[in-house]
Specification:
By secondary structure, this protein is of the alpha+beta class. Helices cover about 15% and strands about 45% of the residues. It has one domain. It is built from 2 helices and 14 strands, in the order H-E-E-E-E-E-E-E-E-E-E-E-E-E-E-H.
């Protein structure tokens, strides 16, 4: 047991060192335009064609489709292979609709056979997820005084482009990666 704990600790240290100053597992060629940081250590950074975080690694391919992995509640990555058209992701292990109306961005559908719904506005962020292994999640985060800061069950910070809550594919995938 002690050897296993030591090996696990060394693996975690190696992973942390590999992340370097970029964080979230980013590589030097990745220049994020926005991010979602959650106190639990989850979150994701994104730009127009890439999303990187502890639970999400997705890229837009040259043909416009999106591919990569999500970890969710398991240690085994779930492959994602999807198209994004007309505000909807449709593909393997993901079906999401993204809308923006009246200053609110809504992201809803299913990911990894789990129902998800995210409602983001300048004053609050609401998170709803189902789970086959537990009761799911229903959380509300309210806007705090700091730029991009929200408080709720834990602190949450929107960085860069994420503060505008755009109805873009990368932003939606970052939200999923932060809360799945």
């Amino acid at each position: 047991m002690r050897i296993r704990t030591t090996l696990l600790s060394l693996s975690m240290l190696a992973l942390a060192c590999a992340e370097g100053a970029s964080g979230y597992g980013a590589t030097p060629d990745f220049a994020p335009t926005g991010g979602i940081r959650v106190a639990s250590g989850n979150g994701a950074r994104f730009n127009a064609n890439r999303v990187v975080g502890p639970k999400v690694q997705l890229n837009q391919r040259s043909d416009g489709t999106w591919g990569g992995t999500l970890y969710g509640n398991s240690r085994t990555p779930t492959p994602i292979d999807a198209t994004f058209q007309g505000g909807e992701f449709v593909g393997a292990n993901i079906r999401l609709t993204i809308t923006r109306e009246g200053g609110q961005t809504q992201i809803f559908g299913s990911v990894q056979d789990r129902i998800v719904r995210f409602e983001l506005s300048p004053t609050q962020i609401r998170v709803f997820t189902s789970s086959s292994t537990r009761t799911g999640r229903s959380e509300t985060y309210v806007k705090l005084a700091g730029q991009g800061e929200y408080g709720g069950p834990q602190s949450l910070t929107l960085e860069g482009e994420a503060q505008q809550m755009p109805p873009t594919p990368a932003f939606a995938l970052a939200v999923v990666g932060a809360f799945i």
